[in-house]
TrEMBL record:
GO terms for molecular function: aspartic-type endopeptidase activity. Keywords: Signal. GO terms for biological process: proteolysis. It comes from Dichanthelium oligosanthes. Belongs to the peptidase A1 family. Residues 262-437 form the Xylanase inhibitor C-terminal domain. PANTHER family: ASPARTYL PROTEASE-RELATED, PEPTIDASE A1 DOMAIN-CONTAINING PROTEIN. Residues 1-36 form the signal peptide. Residues 61-232 form the Xylanase inhibitor N-terminal domain. This is Basic 7S globulin 2. InterPro entries: Aspartic_peptidase_A1, Peptidase_aspartic_dom_sf, TAXi_C, TAXi_N.
Length: 456
């Protein structure tokens, strides 16, 4: 009994404190908004750069951008920024009837159930109560475990950049959702991570917010696991002298009305082995197997930073694995090894050649892109093969789990993080174009090659 008595006033204290802080911060935000509109500053439109890292335990990628906490997990298709909110320090909130609240709940994706929009209804008496906006942060890996949390703002900072160096620090606020501690703990995120930064097609994703706040285009670059760059800028990585933006390939991007993902117009998948003069083999996919159905949101080829390896729907997987297996078997000297789950096709490294720059001499995988692409997307061994056991090199592609395959808006292929490491990807939502470099090994540019030092 006595513990309950002691707890009750503390909780009220915290609530009062929160309310006070909210009011103060809202007032501060309003003042800031007014000065900005008064045109007191032309605004700093310089692009921003943040370091990325890969967590060895979970293989998830994190971005160091949030002040006073651990990094956030990069979720390429995610709609929101979320983190835990300490009650002790209070957090600002947004009213239910606000543009931010609409933005947080407005995307009509199937998983955004209406029950989470209770914030829209004011008091039952129709009175003018302050009602707090609630958003719905989800576990980025499964997207199944979600919670309700206040919409709030988080203090963040990054460096301005000219594409060559980090220039000067910039602080800003980003709107995001408070998540309960259990969501952070249960989401199999890296031990030190403080939450998630969604990079998807949604008004409150991190790139969307930065684009509006900084007045630069809706463009961002990811080079896993090294660097993220927001805004319209040339990009220099390492010793490779030219601006990569002007030299890398491009393809149109597609959107899925059912989620925030970025989709590629892949028409076919083929396997070839130019070093052994073998004819290209196309995976014998069922007709329209890779097509995105715009009404149901099913199918299509999308990119993910929270899935480790590329996952293919079983019809696509079977046809692809057959094409790869046939091609690698043709010269007759590559010795298969027992499967190492989750991988099926594995080979004895003693029977393979290692070529100096690009890794193992194995067949190349090609994603054949549709109209408008400047090149097909070639996946080199550094992105296609993984050393899964001693002397065992495996094709780093997995068959989609049945429950994932039958989920709403399930894609035909999810290209995983491993397949785009050490590739520069530049997403431009204004022009709906993705620029892609392919594997950078041997080019002199690397994802860890961004110069985070100030210019000399
Ligand atoms: C900005 O760059 C400097 C080095 O030039 C670094 O020390 C600092 O941590 C960076 N700030 C942010 C917010 O990334
Ligand atoms: C991609 O590959 C296919 C088949 O080889 C070819 O017909 C097509 O022209 C290629 N696309 C581009 C953009 O090079």
């Amino acid at each position: 009994m006595s513990t309950i008595k002691q707890l009750a006033p503390m909780r009220r204290l915290c609530f009062n404190h929160l309310l006070a802080v909210s009011v103060l911060l809202l007032a501060a935000a309003l003042v800031q908004e007014c000065t900005a509109q008064g045109g007191s500053s032309g605004g700093d439109h310089a692009p921003l750069v943040s370091p990325l890292a890969k967590d060895p335990a979970t293989s998830l990628y994190t971005i160091s951008i949030k002040d006073g906490s651990g990094p956030l997990v990069v979720d390429l298709a995610g709609p929101l920024v979320w983190s835990t909110c300490a009650c002790a320090s209070g957090h600002p909130t947004f009213p239910c009837r606000s543009a931010e609240c609409d933005a947080a709940n407005g995307f009509n994706w199937p998983q955004q159930g209406r029950q989470w929009q209770q914030g829209y209804d004011a008091g039952a008496d129709g009175g003018d109560h302050y009602c707090t906006c609630t958003a719905r942060p989800c576990d980025p890996v499964t997207r199944a475990r979600c919670a309700a949390g206040d919409l709030t703002t988080f203090a963040m900072s990054a460096n301005a950049t000219d594409g060559r160096n980090a220039l000067y620090p910039v602080s800003f606020q980003a709107v995001g959702a408070c998540a309960p501690d259990w969501l952070l703990r249960s989401s199999s995120l890296p031990a030190g991570a403080a939450g998630v930064a969604g990079f998807g097609r949604a008004p409150l994703s991190l790139p969307s917010q930065l684009a509006v706040r900084r007045g630069f285009g809706r463009r961002f670059a990811l080079c896993l696991p090294g660097v993220a760059i927001f805004g319209d800028t040339p990009i220099f990585l390492g010793s490779y002298p030219p601006d990569l933006i002007t030299t890398i390939a491009s393809t149109p991007l597609a959107a899925n009305p059912r989620n925030g993902g970025y989709y590629l117009p892949v028409e076919a998948i083929s396997v070839s082995w130019p070093n052994w003069n073998l004819a290209t083999t196309r995976a014998a996919l069922p007709p329209s197997a890779l097509e995105l159905d715009a009404t149901t949101g099913r199918g299509g080829v999308t990119l993910s930073t929270v899935q480790r390896y590329t996952a293919m729907r079983s019809d696509v997987y079977r046809a692809f694995v057959q094409a790869f297996s046939e091609t690698i078997g043709k010269p007759g000297f590559v010795k298969p090894m027992p499967a190492v789950p989750p991988f099926e096709l594995c080979y004895d490294t003693f029977s393979l050649r290692h070529v100096r720059v690009l890794g193992w001499d194995v067949p190349l995988i090609r994603l054949e892109l549709g109209a408008g692409a400047s090149m097909n997307w070639t996946v080199d061994s550094g992105n296609s093969m993984v050393q899964a056991a001693d002397r065992t090199l495996c094709l780093a592609v997995v068959e989609m789990a049945p429950e994932a395959e039958h989920a709403a808006a399930a894609p035909a292929v999810v290209i995983g993080g491993y397949q785009v490491e050490d590739n520069l990807l530049v997403f431009d939502e204004d022009t709906e174009v993705l620029q892609f470099s392919g594997l950078l090994w041997g080019s002199g540019a690397t994802c860890s090659g961004f110069n985070f030092n100030a210019p000399q």
